[in-house]
Amino acid sequence: QVQLVESGGGLVQSGGSLRLSCTASGSGFSVNTMTWYRQSPGKQRELVASITVYSITTYSESVKGRFTISRDNPKRTAYLQMNSLKPEDTAVYFCHFGGTDSAGLADDYWGQGTQVTVSS
Question: Which of 28, 33, 14, 3 is nearest to 116 (CA)?
């Protein structure tokens, strides 16, 4: 059974930084794309940043230039470095890994979510 475990959320003042991590445990899953999403109360979940197995990255316009996504393939871990945080970045952040199972079929998993709160 594969699980994604997130860490690194917390409370920070506006202008501060946080680093989120998401690690996949378990076997039988080959990770391709790693993505961070976030969801604020009353809003839909939105894509924040994504990184492919070839380390090609994409970002939402709202975080471009402030957030950096990276990955460590041997550790099956994704990172999200968040700088210059703003109160509007306050949300629950979720990681999502897409890939293939041991049979080569598409598979994906979600993390449990970690709260990020930015105070003004």
Answer: 14
